[in-house]
Specification:
It is a single chain. Helix 1 packs antiparallel against helix 5 and helix 4 runs antiparallel to helix 5. The two termini are 13 Å apart. It is globular and about 40 Å long. The longest helix is centred in the N-terminal third of the chain and has 19 residues. By secondary structure, the chain is mainly α.
Length: 118
Amino acid sequence: MKTIIQLEEFGMLVLSVFLFDMLPFEWWWFLVLFLSPDISMLGYMAGNKAGAVLYNLFHHKGIAVALYISGFALENDVLKLAGLILFGHASFDRMMGYGLKTFEGFKATHLGTIGKAE
């Protein structure tokens, strides 16, 4: 099952790259911004609950899709870019086994505990 989920997430990452190619931005923008959602980890400086909420806002695929669709509705390429970066980054994280955070701490995710021996 883990391999199937990883392949599915890889497919979504590829989709984000494909859709990015349709935007009027240079490729280096994708590379530079790809890890930017991880700035949300700074929320953990305010505690587990604040950290989890902020992290999940920056790693939620529903929010990413809403941003992308908003970009279409408003004809705004920057919103589309933001949505694709969030979507691609979240897909990459989940492909690597990092999920949305719970209030228990940074290593506790909806996919299980990070670093847990399998």
